[in-house]
Specification:
One of its GO terms (molecular function) is alpha-amylase activity. This is Glycosyl hydrolase family 13 catalytic domain-containing protein. InterPro entries: GH, GH13_cat_dom. One of its GO terms (biological process) is oligosaccharide catabolic process. It holds the Pfam family Alpha-amylase. The protein is α+β, with helices and mostly antiparallel strands. The protein has one domain. Strands 1-2 form a two-stranded parallel ribbon. The chain is flat and about 45 Å long. The mean pLDDT is 83.
Length: 72
């Protein structure tokens, strides 16, 4: 399985956009704000970025209280 073990030596950063970086000043992060920090993660030595899913939520538990897993 040569060539399939890249993950053993690569650095992957996982980000949860709602708590990573905001873009509009409301105190909640989002995808637009997170994108502005991708260069920073690369400069830290990151090889890939794993973006946690963002689902609709009433935000009682900062996004972990998913109200609809199927919306798109």
């Amino acid at each position: 399985m040569e060539g399939y073990s890249w993950w053993r030596s690569e650095i992957t950063y996982q980000i949860y956009p709602c708590s990573f970086q905001g873009a509009d000043g409301d105190g909640v992060g989002g995808l637009r704000g997170s994108i502005t920090r991708f260069d920073y993660l690369v400069n830290l030595g990151g090889d890939s970025i794993w973006i946690s899913p963002i689902y609709p939520s009433p935000m009682a538990d900062f996004g972990y209280d998913v109200s609809d897993y199927c919306s798109g």
